[in-house]
Backbone:
């Protein structure tokens, strides 16, 4: 008899995947972690029964989190990723030759450990000499940093458990302080079908903190609704004013130079979330 995993994305809706086997499951100090082998999506990382990443579609999220801000900034040298213990965003960050150091601040060391073991195509870049892996609280890491980073990426889970503080105005203000005078923030901000209020809140908080604030989207089929948003806050550089010569050829499966601008063209109902009805 087949085994299926269902993520209940709302009280009335979920997605289901056929499971071949469970590779590992444990309760860490912060959350329940499980690594599944699925028929459709390959290996799948779950945290508290929520899909974090899969081998088949992981490239979308990781590329869009990393390349949009890194091509917006003219010379990103020092990058911080808060969360993201699977290593996918770090892998994409390292494709930019200007990056001299990429710091990972992941609160749950077990996510790093089992991603390295079961998701080497995603986590392999964590061994790169330019990467500083810190098992630490990203909120506190930000609080202790001042004018240190060119780009900060918040690769968090949904705002539950240890990630709650990563969706507060105080956190974004701390990020602004941790960024250099021309720094850029990008954070994953969930989906507009089920979490419009969250997107509205984050957009408002970031807009009050950064001179330039923009929302962009990507299609990630294993995330709730499939339509995902990212919110960018920038001190100087507008992602819609990137000169052509700044775009360099890198190995991607989703992100392109043309998509860089196109992803900011929001469906009307998503635009209404940030601009009001």
Residues:
């Amino acid at each position: 008899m087949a085994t299926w995993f269902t993520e209940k994305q709302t009280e009335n809706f979920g997605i289901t995947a056929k499971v071949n086997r469970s590779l590992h499951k444990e309760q860490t100090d912060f959350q329940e972690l499980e690594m599944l082998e699925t028929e459709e999506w390959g290996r799948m990382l779950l945290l508290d029964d929520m899909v974090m990443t899969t081998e088949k579609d992981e490239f979308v999220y990781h590329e869009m989190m990393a390349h949009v801000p890194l091509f917006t900034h003219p010379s990103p040298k020092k990058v911080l990723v808060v969360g993201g213990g699977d290593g996918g965003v770090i892998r994409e960050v390292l494709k930019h030759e200007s990056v001299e150091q990429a710091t990972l601040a992941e609160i749950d060391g077990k996510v790093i450990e089992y991603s390295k073991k079961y998701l080497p195509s995603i986590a392999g870049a964590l061994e790169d000499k330019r990467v500083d892996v810190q098992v630490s609280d990203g909120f506190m890491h930000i609080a202790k940093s001042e004018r240190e980073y060119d780009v900060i990426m918040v690769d968090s889970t949904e705002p539950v458990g240890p990630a709650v503080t990563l969706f507060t105005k105080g956190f974004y203000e701390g990020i602004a302080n941790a960024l250099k005078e021309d720094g850029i923030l990008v954070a994953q901000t969930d989906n507009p079908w089920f979490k419009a209020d969250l997107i509205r809140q984050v957009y408002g908080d970031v807009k009050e903190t950064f001179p330039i604030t923009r929302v962009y989207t990507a299609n990630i089929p294993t995330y709730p609704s499939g339509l995902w948003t990212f919110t960018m806050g920038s001190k100087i550089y507008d992602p819609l004013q990137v000169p052509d010569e700044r775009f360099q050829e890198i190995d991607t499966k989703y992100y392109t130079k043309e998509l860089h601008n196109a992803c900011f063209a929001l469906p009307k109902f998503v635009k209404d979330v940030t601009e009001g009805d």
The longest strand covers residues 13-27. The first helix runs from residue 58 to 72. The chain has two domains: 3-54, 58-275.
